[in-house]
Automatic annotation (TrEMBL):
It comes from the Eukaryota. The chain crosses the membrane at residues 48-67, 83-102. Its main location: mitochondrion. Pfam families: HIG_1_N. The gene is HIGD2A. It comes from Balaenoptera musculus. This is HIG1 domain family member 2A, mitochondrial.
Length: 106
């Protein structure tokens, strides 16, 4: 029977630091962006997504207001409008994804 080899001590695990993986950089951008900078960059890349989000929020808000006022037909119309705005937002996200994928190809 073979004798067990002594275990060599490795560097201690540091949970506050990301793991070092050879050939991998965790950040695509060399400088860190603030939330505002990232939001503005993403909005410039695909301006239809924020428009769709605002439309969705507006239809939801107005629909809830109409529901509270007892205008059930208008409330139902606004809920359907909200679904359409959500669909528009999803399509805008997919189109932006497809455009950025095609743009990054050589």
């Amino acid at each position: 029977m073979a004798t067990p080899r002594p275990v060599t001590p490795e560097a201690p695990f540091e949970p506050s630091q990301p793991p070092v993986i050879e050939g991998f950089s965790p950040s695509v951008y060399s400088t860190s962006e603030s939330f505002k900078e990232k939001f503005l960059r993403k909005t410039r890349e695909n301006p239809m997504v924020p428009i769709g989000c605002l439309g969705t929020a507006a239809a939801l808000t107005y629909g809830l207001y109409c529901f509270h006022r007892g205008q059930s037909q208008r409330s139902q119309l606004m809920m359907r409008t909200r679904i359409a705005a959500q669909g528009f937002t999803v399509v805008a996200i997919l189109m932006g994804l497809a455009a950025s994928t095609l743009k990054s190809r050589p």
